[in-house]
């Protein structure tokens, strides 16, 4: 939590001395509207990620096994993901994104945010020694997702929607898939059928690109564009 406080202080200083703004630029108000956007983002991401996970399991004819639910582990996982997602969003879709979008152009700010987010995941996933194909795939898929969440900020003038989409996605992953430090909290799936190399490659590509595309369409359809021009 100390890290989040430090990021908020640095964000305030950057906003204050570069743009004569304060943390209101991150879009916490009006609170009721932001809670609705947050909730909508969480719900959409949970439904989307669950559909993708269970569809793949059905295709592979995998079976599911209910885990012995540990409410302590679930509470720890929720706290961990809220803290990690808030940290990432403040870094990549907070004050720096706002300043880049206002001082330069919105698309430049979104591009820088997406590139930084993609590179960041090389380190957070611990894959720097992986093959170039893996590095490119992780960079493109996570960077694309970062672009989508940055666009959520551009359209709503708030971090709330992007944060909701981010936390909803991560929590669902932790509930059903192998993940670190928390994974398969509710259900665990058998390995299921494997397919030809070309089919497996196609499935990996679809799983990487379909979520951000559908999230982007959701944002475009349900959230009015309000360019950041302050």
Distance between the termini: 30 Å
Number of helical regions: 8
Question: Which class do the helix and strand fractions yield?
Answer: mainly alpha
Rg on CA atoms, Å? 18 Å
Mean pLDDT: 94
Strand order of the largest sheet: 1-2
How many domains is the backbone divided into? 1
As a percent range, the share of strand residues is under 5%
Spans with pLDDT under 50 lasting ≥5 residues?
A: none
Q: Which sheet architecture does the biggest sheet show? A: 2 strands, antiparallel
| Shape summary | globular
Question: How much helical structure, as a percent, in the residues?
Answer: over 70%
Number of E-type strands: 2
SSE sequence, one letter per element: HHEHHHHHEH
Can you describe what's shown?
The model has no long low-confidence stretch (mean pLDDT 94). This protein has helices at residues 2-19, 31-59, 71-92, 95-103, 106-124, 132-156, 160-176, 197-222; strands spanning 64-66, 187-189. Helix 2 (31-59) packs parallel to helix 7 (160-176). Strands 1-2 form a two-stranded antiparallel sheet. The chain has one domain. It is globular, with a radius of gyration of 18 Å. 30% of the residues are buried. It is 72% helix and 3% strand. It is built from 8 helices and 2 strands. With 230 residues, the chain is mainly alpha-helical.
């Amino acid at each position: 939590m100390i890290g989040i406080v430090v990021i908020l202080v640095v964000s305030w200083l950057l906003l204050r001395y570069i743009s004569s703004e304060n943390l209101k630029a991150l879009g916490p108000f009006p609170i009721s509207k932001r809670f609705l956007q947050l909730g909508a983002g969480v719900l959409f991401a949970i439904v989307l990620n669950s559909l993708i996970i269970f569809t793949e399991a059905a295709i592979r004819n995998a079976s599911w096994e209910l885990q012995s639910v540990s409410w302590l582990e679930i509470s720890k996982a929720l706290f961990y993901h809220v803290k990690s997602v808030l940290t990432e969003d403040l870094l990549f879709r907070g004050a720096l994104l706002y300043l880049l979008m206002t001082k330069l152009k919105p698309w430049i700010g979104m591009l820088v945010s997406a590139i930084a987010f993609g590179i960041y995941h090389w380190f957070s996933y611990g894959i720097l020694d992986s093959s170039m194909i893996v590095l490119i795939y992780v960079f493109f898929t996570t960077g694309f997702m970062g672009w989508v969440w940055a666009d959520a900020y551009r359209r709503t003038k708030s971090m709330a929607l992007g944060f909701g989409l981010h936390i909803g996605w991560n929590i669902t992953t932790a509930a059903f898939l192998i993940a670190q430090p928390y994974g398969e909290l509710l259900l665990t799936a058998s390995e299921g059928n494997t397919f030809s190399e070309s089919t497996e490659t196609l499935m990996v590509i679809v799983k990487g690109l379909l979520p951000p595309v559908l999230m982007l369409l959701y944002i475009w359809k349900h959230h009015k564009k309000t360019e950041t021009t302050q």
